[in-house]
Amino acid sequence: MKKVLFYLLLLCLSSNIFANSTISLHNYKELVEMSLRDLIVDILTNSNKSFIIDKDINVDLLVFYKPEEPRNINFLKKILISNGYELTISNDVYFIKKIEVITDIPKEEKLYLKSIDLKYLNFSDIENILKLQKIDYSYLKNVNRIFLNCSNEKFNEIKQFINNIDVLPRQQKIKISIIETNLGKLKDYQTLINANFNKSQLFLFDVLLGSPMNVNNKANNDNFSSVLKFLDSNNISKSIINTVVNLENNEEFKLISSQNIPFLTTSNTLSELTINEMNKYEYKDVGLNLNIYPIITDDLLNVKLNFSYSQLLDSNADKPITTKKELNEKFSINKENKRFIISGINNFSKTEKNESVPYLSDVPLIGLLFKNDLVNESFTTTTIVIEFIDNDV
């Protein structure tokens, strides 16, 4: 029983050594136990020194040391340092306090006024990026130059970033052809077309003139040219636009071809004896409007297209009659296919016109002989052809 109690006592003493941050682990019987407070008081009073203990010091910390170790000020410094404390002296008074962890305080950087010239970017493209840097900057528009007030390190960082993105934008040449075809007249040539064109060419007729779909077409240039030539030579189709343009990545392209037409609006003003008629005209654009917003990659041309085409059908009596086609579409074109066709933009219009001989047309019974009612019907389709052109050409 005595042996069991001895082991239990030894176990408790060993746990106390670990729990109180001892400076060394030896046979417990060989060590002297003392609180940090008592050790400080004992060494400094025996050395006839005045001292102050900081309130953050854990004075109840137990210290274990060999009896033969000299209990002097150097010994006390080692004990304190091993527990995160330090012993300093000022005006013959010792201070026991926690070791201060000094972090490096960055020196205030000197600022310099420097500039960066933009080659292809607009200032609006990078202004939001400069705002993130929290620096002073200004922009000189006439020379496309940015002025920065910042440290050399920050300037070099910003300049490197701008140089990486300030490059020539991607570009792509394309040929745009817009063709309008009279479908009513085309029917008159249907037999001739079926007899003289092969299957590939007949497929192109369907694509160009009637298919309400987008087609990536791989037909050879000879077939395509022969179909267009036939339609043009027989006045079945007319070319509205046939031009080569250079698209720039992420920049909107606009093509407008129109005339300004006056539309009459009438208002009457009443007076005491007469009615005065006041005529006002409002002008509107009639013609073609094409907007293309491209995103250009190595293999694809991604397009957002807006197309509208209005025509003047009748302008008699200052009251023009117009017709309009419109298309809004997004699509991607694979550059390997070379040509992309949008077709099936159809329109039906009908106009009526009365012609008569003055005075004679008002005579009862025989007046009908001097009148003529004309009805004009038109059924057309518009086709947009986009053809890639090698940038090296």
Structure report:
The protein is of the alpha+beta class and 393 residues long. It contains 9 helices and 17 strands. It has helices spanning 2-19, 36-46, 73-82, 123-133, 152-165, 183-188, 190-196, 199-209, 221-233, and strands at residues 32-35, 50-53, 62-65, 85-90, 93-98, 112-117, 136-140, 145-150, 171-182, 214-217, 237-248, 253-270, 275-296, 300-314, 321-334, 339-356, 371-389. A 5-stranded antiparallel beta sheet has the order 10-16-17-9-11. A 4-stranded antiparallel beta sheet has the order 12-13-14-15, with no helix packed on it. It has a 3-stranded mixed beta sheet with strand order 2-5-4, covered by helices on one side. A hairpin with a 2-residue loop joins β4 and β5. α8 (199-209) crosses α9. It is elongated and about 145 Å long. Residues 1-26 and 212-217 have low confidence and may be disordered.
